Amino acid sequence: MQQVIDPVKNRLITVEEYIKEYAKNSLDNLDYTAPLMICPHCLNNRMKLKARSSINVSPYFVHPKNNEYCPSKILQEGIYLNCKITDPDVENANKLKKHFREHWKYYFQKIRNMVPYLRKEEFTKIIDISLRERIWEYKNVQSYHLPYLFVTLADFSIQHPNSYYKEDFCRSLHFRYWFQSKLDNYKDLINNINVLSLCRASYKLTEKQTQPRQDQLQKIQSFEIINDLMEQDTDKVSIHIEKWIEKYFEIKNWQH
User: Which of 44, 60, 162, 186 has its CA 20 to 30 A from that of 138?
Assistant: First the structure.
């Protein structure tokens, strides 16, 4: 990864800043020991800078060997997928689905605020995955939790311009989302969601890549879990998107 938490300054620091701030001191003073950094995803406090291994691989921060679970090390789309739900709350799930159907524009806009250039097809894709994974049925899920859970279900790939989407409306980085926690399943994450934060990891991929490598993690952004779902500006949802998603609900026979 290219960013870690500096325990001295208590803020995110890049590889370039680390080299300027600490690595050069080691060259000037052989007795100097640079402080270990903190992983912003699992909070491991023994992160080190790995030197360039080839001309094509830039320096990046790594966990110590035999490190415990960290979401950034799970190199798959939807890192919490295939969790087995053992005690579903069907009644609450039905209430959530009803609220979602009636107020989907608020959910769309909330997710779009976390996923730049969210497209309607991506929105319906994560709805489909959420139904398959039975996210709605976990106990203690509230409506405002759903957008934060939904974005962890799939990656959001680099977009390319076409006849409909111009270059200014395409994302240039590959996004993956997870919670800042060592918890690795939805049941535990949901039970602790109000004390967690959501991380957006941004990767810079090569032209032919579809999945990122750990060393390609460029930057992160954190989102607090806040109950502002119904405060979203739904006027930003276009008529074109509205018609397309209403058609999706019709095909799914998802009634109000």
Answer: 44
What is the value of pTM for the model shown? 0.85
Label residues 43-62 b or e (16+ Cβ within 10 Å = b): ebeebebeeeeeeeeebbbb
Average pLDDT, the chain: 89
pLDDT at 52 over 70: no
Q: For residues 226 and 248, give the distance between their C-alpha atoms in angstroms, rounded to a whole number.
A: 28
Angle, CA of 140, 151 and 218, to the nearest 5°: 130
Q: Are β-strands 3-6 and 11-14 bridged in parallel, bridged antiparallel, or unpaired?
A: antiparallel
Which amino acid, one-letter code, is at 200? R
- What is the C-alpha to C-alpha distance for residues 46 and 37, in angstroms, rounded to an integer? 6
d(CA 119, CA 11) in angstroms, rounded, equals 32
Q: How confident is the model at residue 72 (pLDDT cuts 50, 70, 90)?
A: confident
